[in-house]
């Protein structure tokens, strides 16, 4: 194979790998790559606590080991707004804040 052909193939491979890596990085909406959803019985308890606190709605996202609390449950309320409900290990609400991501521009 000629040197020029080898250089072209090598360059194309580098471009393809870079594009693939960028696509994987951009496809994740997890800021630090460590977001773990709540599962099992804990999911049921956390969802019930968050929905009781917000007065109903739909659980749209959950996380174990959130930086602000032991559990985080995102609830979309009946009025369309979203609230992040922070829970301790016993599923007690320790904080609830409007979810900034739910605000439409």
Structure explained in plain terms:
With 105 residues, this protein is of the alpha+beta class. It folds into 2 domains: 1-30; 40-102, SHC Adaptor Protein. 38% of the residues lie in helices and 24% in strands. It has helices at residues 3-27, 40-54; strands at residues 58-64, 71-76, 82-87, 93-98. The protein has a 4-stranded antiparallel β-sheet with strand order 1-2-3-4, covered by helices on one side. A hairpin with a 5-residue loop joins strand 3 and strand 4 (93-98).
Primary descriptors:
single chain, 105 residues, alpha+beta, SHC Adaptor Protein, four-stranded antiparallel beta sheet, 2 helices, elongated
Task: Describe the secondary-structure layout.
Elements: H1 3-27, H2 40-54, E1 58-64, E2 71-76, E3 82-87, E4 93-98
Antiparallel strand pairs: 1-2, 2-3, 3-4
* CATH-scheme architecture of the largest domain: 2-Layer Sandwich
What average pLDDT do the residues reach?
79
Largest sheet: 4 strands, antiparallel
CATH topology of the largest domain: SHC Adaptor Protein
Compute the gyration radius: what is it? 21 Å
β-strand number: 4
* SSE string: HHEEEE
Count of domains = 2
Measured as a percent range, the helix fraction is: 25-40%
At the first level of CATH, what is the class of the largest domain? Alpha Beta
Number of helices: 2
Strand content: 15-25%
Structural class: alpha+beta
Question: Judging from the principal axes of the Cα atoms, what is the shape?
Answer: elongated
The strand line-up of the biggest sheet is 1-2-3-4
Straight-line distance between termini: 55 Å
């Amino acid at each position: 194979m000629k040197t020029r052909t080898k250089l072209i193939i090598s360059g194309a491979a580098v471009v393809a790998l870079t594009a693939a890596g960028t696509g994987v990085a951009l496809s994740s909406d997890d800021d630090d790559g460590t977001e773990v959803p709540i599962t099992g019985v804990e999911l049921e308890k956390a969802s019930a606590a968050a929905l009781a606190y917000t007065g109903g709605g739909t659980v749209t996202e959950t996380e174990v080991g959130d930086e602000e609390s032991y559990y985080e449950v995102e609830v979309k309320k009946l009025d369309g707004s979203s609230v992040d409900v922070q829970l301790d290990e016993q599923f007690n609400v320790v904080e609830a804040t409007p979810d900034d991501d739910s605000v439409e521009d």
